[in-house]
Design goal:
Length: 427
């Protein structure tokens, strides 16, 4: 920033000098160039006027009655630590300079006072002052923008949390950045403590590292408030912008709850049978591929159950398709309540269903199929009273493909139907 004469019109100065004649002459010269000039005749008066008027720059003599210039500056520094100070002095003793350095004096002008040198000193001090003001204004403007953002934001510098916007402070139940920093120092502390979901602490730490080390990536996280139990769980997309030259990062948390809900709804619809509400064939095929890939790397038993509603065409022909649809729903409900939570149950097509029995061998899966068969047979179905199902069971073999695995369970089901229905057959 280049300081011109007009810029001094925005500056206020406190000039402290005990000799009235010198003070009046120099004050008149200063008033021609500087916007506002206050005067004081001694150190005590200077401190009081500074406290009352808050000038931008202080100019003072050293030798004064009641309180000398250096003591006055020490008192003023307690009021405002960073105010620029210019000393006008005829002293050159080392002790004065050492004390001046300790007080952080900005400029020196030797007596007899050259007004041009003094104005130059004021210009230099004013330049630094206006630069600092500009930085502070920009900083306030940036904070205003961050606080006005409709999403949560946090900044770090050299790994330490620097700023957090008001929206996030309110969400977390903190009243200020300082109070927030009493709880969190580094961004990792914040992530580990604030992210909640199905993940465990180890997964949270991995996510934290991922976001920090790969700033361009986006992640969906769930946040919760430590101070409020009534804040509903919401999903946020967290992104990170890096500023390497400043060793700084800007993290933003954008509320994507509705988008995430829609995405999950679409995902649910894409993998769910619309009639029964259980998984559909596409989801089952995807899960089957995943499990087969997994057991080829980490061998463990995996079995299939295929079941078919006996005489389903007769049910439709006798009672109508609406009753047939209800039977499909009821059979699905009975099976869902009977099988283990880790097993995947799906509608394969028509009146056929599939179940993927994870970590279950042939014998255990046969017992499970028999349990399901009995539960269906014992259930009272509205309008049709009794319904039975036939079951095929098989276990995955080393040389199996997905097709051979499915063909074999289908063959077992075919055998169960041919041998009288309402039975379990194993291949």
């Amino acid at each position: 920033m280049t300081m011109n004469s007009n810029s001094l019109k925005d500056i206020s100065v406190l000039y402290v000098e005990d000799e009235a004649e010198i003070r009046d002459v120099l004050a008149k010269i200063l008033k021609r160039r500087i916007g506002t000039v206050y005067t004081a005749s001694n150190g005590f008066e200077g401190v009081e006027k500074f406290r009352e008027l808050n000038p931008d720059i202080v100019i003072t003599d050293i030798n004064m009655p009641k309180m000398d210039g250096l003591k006055m500056i020490a008192a003023i520094r307690k009021i405002k630590e960073d105010v620029p100070v210019i000393i006008i002095t005829g002293h050159n003793e080392p002790d004065y300079f050492i004390r001046s350095i300790e007080l952080g004096i900005d400029r020196y002008v030797l007596k007899p006072t050259d007004s041009k040198m003094l104005i130059d000193a004021i210009k230099k001090s004013a330049t630094c002052l206006l630069q600092r003001r500009e930085i502070e204004t920009e900083s306030r403007y940036i904070r205003f923008i961050l606080d006005s953002c409709p999403f949560y934001m946090i900044t770090t510098r050299k790994g330490k949390i620097e700023y957090i916007n008001k929206r996030l402070l309110d969400f977390l139940g903190h009243t200020s950045v300082e109070e927030f920093k009493d709880h969190y120092q580094e961004i990792g502390d914040f992530f580990d403590d604030i992210i909640r979901g199905t993940q465990d602490d180890k997964a949270n730490r991995l996510l934290t590292s991922h976001v920090i080390e790969k700033p361009a990536c986006y992640n969906i996280v769930k946040l919760f408030s430590k101070t409020s139990k009534t804040v509903p769980d919401k999903f946020y997309m967290v992104s990170c912008n890096a500023f390497p030259e400043l060793e700084s990062y800007l993290y933003s948390f954008i509320d994507v709850t509705e988008i995430e809900k829609e995405r999950k709804d679409f995902e649910f619809q894409a993998m769910t049978d619309s009639l029964t509400g259980i998984y559909n064939r596409a989801k089952f095929s995807s899960a089957l591929l995943t499990e087969i890939t997994r057991i080829k790397r980490y061998p463990m038993p995996l079995s299939l159950i295929m079941l078919d509603i006996d005489h389903f065409k007769k049910i439709n022909d006798t009672y109508g398709h609406s009753i047939g649809d209800q039977v499909l729903k009821d059979v699905s409900a009975v099976v869902t309540m009977t099988v283990r939570e880790q097993d995947l149950f799906a509608r394969w097509g028509g009146e056929e269903f599939m179940m993927l029995a994870i970590q279950s061998d042939l014998n255990g899966t046969k017992k499970m199929a028999e349990k399901v068969r009995k539960a269906i047979e014992a259930n009272h179905f509205q309008a049709v009273d009794t319904v039975t199902c036939s079951f095929g069971v098989t276990e995955f073999r080393k040389d199996d493909s997905i097709d051979s695995f499915i063909r074999r369970v289908d063959k077992a089901l075919y055998k169960a139907k041919n041998d009288g229905r309402n039975r379990v057959e194993v291949l």
